[in-house]
Amino acid sequence: MDSLKTLASWIQASSRIVFFGGAGTSTESGIPDFRSAAGLYLSEKHSPYPPEQMLSHSFFMSKPEIFFDFYRGKMLHPDAEANGAHRLLARLEREGRLSAVVTQNIDGLHQKAGSRRVLELHGSVHRNHCMGCSRYYGLDAVIGSEETVPRCPDCGGIIKPDVVLYEEELDHKVLTDSVQAIAGADLLIIGGTSLTVQPAASLIQYFQGKHTALLNGEPTSYDSRADLIITDRIGWAMDRISELLG
């Protein structure tokens, strides 16, 4: 509890907080992460194709039917609800303490909780576009498609999720905005990420502020550089911190 009180005191003393998060932020919302023992990559290891391959650009282009079958079954969680981590971050933004959420997640739960400045490094399942005519679609176009591969009713082109697949580059503006937000932060809270996915994980090196707090259930390569480490479940921990803040 002392570590939670420490982080609460740092939050109270800060006005430019940035949260950098990964898949572990949403596990308490029922969305599996990727690399933990119960994560997507290990649970799917007996599949004919590794998840990393199915989530690559080349696989999407060559085997769209298999891609969308996996994507719908494993990557989409439209009924998931925000947890304590998402709620506290949205509260801190409303109070003027948090300047940005930089997330590797594609689930949209930060926005669902009320956060407005969310920099989505890997895109979002809620944005989709036709590869033929560039028309944009919401998530319903993918979930509600009667065909395995969703197609644009205007031109027949494949509707591609605006998520960054392996072999694809991150959006330059999102990267630039993320670097600027982290560089200007006075408190960096890192949560629910193993800090192994590049180039996203390298962004935290731009932090020049006072304190770094790391909330993750498993050790990371950044542990020795963090000022505070909390290994409790992040949603539970953030709920306790919200209570401490009053």
Automatic annotation (TrEMBL):
Entry-linked Pfam families: SIR2 (PF02146)
Binding residue positions for nicotinamide: 34, 106-107
Annotated family: Belongs to the sirtuin family. Class U subfamily.
Residues at which NAD(+) binds: 23, 27, 34-35, 104, 106-107, 122, 193-194, 216, 234
MF-aspect GO terms: hydrolase activity
Encoding gene (name): cobB
Membrane-spanning residues: none
Cofactor note: Binds 1 zinc ion per subunit.
Record: active site: 122
Protein name: NAD-dependent protein deacetylase
Keyword Amino-acid biosynthesis appears in the UniProt entry: no
